Amino acid sequence: MRRALMLLRHLLPLVASFARDRRRWLVLGGPMERSRAFHARRAGRLADTLGRMGPTFIKLSQLFAGRRDLVPSPYIEAIGTLTDRVPAVPWSAVRAALAESYGRPPEQVFDWISAEPLAAASLGQVHRATVQGRDVVVKVLRPGVETTIAADLRAARALLRWLAPRLHPPHLRGLHSVLDEFERRVAEEMDFRAEARFAETIRANFAGNDRVRVPEVIPGFVRQRALVLEYMAGTRIDRLDDDLAGGRLDPEPVLRTVMELYVQMMLVDGLFHADPHPG
What we know:
54% helix, 5-stranded antiparallel beta sheet, alpha+beta, Phosphorylase Kinase, domain 1, globular, single chain
């Protein structure tokens, strides 16, 4: 109940703001005119609010961050920051989680590990490290994330039950199915052993393709809540504007490669990456 009340406290002001776009007084009046600057400010508040609400809502935001057909600018730019710049877990908690996964402190597992995260996402956090003389990244599940997501889903279902007899919108019924599917999928993502199996299979499928590189899973370091992968430097696909504008990157071969790899994954291999957000 406490979690549900906290979510309502964060959500209701934004829900009311969006509702007033159509009705100035929520149930009476005409639409309100909103300036571009207003939308930019509200988009920033939306991203900040979703970030504070925790992993469930950050993950849902990531699902929409690549859907420019559904989410207008500047909202998509704002929630796009949540793909890898969410509030980080303190190093003390990460260190304890790694010690629990590997049975000893991370300083005894790795030659070196950075206390500063390379990226922080909805479910996990990534730190650079070296092990066995190799540059790697260590992915660790956020402590307590399973409990938080379960509480959020209970709160969301309770809210839907409360709204249904009052608003009667037909698409509310479909949201129950969306929540059920989200619950199943996110449970899979919270087991890094499954991610490791999928990554190794996809890596093997592209072993003969010199245009596609898939990070190697480092053997012996796969756990349910921790995973070690080969470090690969790169640039996010949504941060290539300067290279494109300066003529330093030809987009045609990049797009052709992406199209070909998805055709192979979906039609030949039968296993494909289904979460290709920019982060």
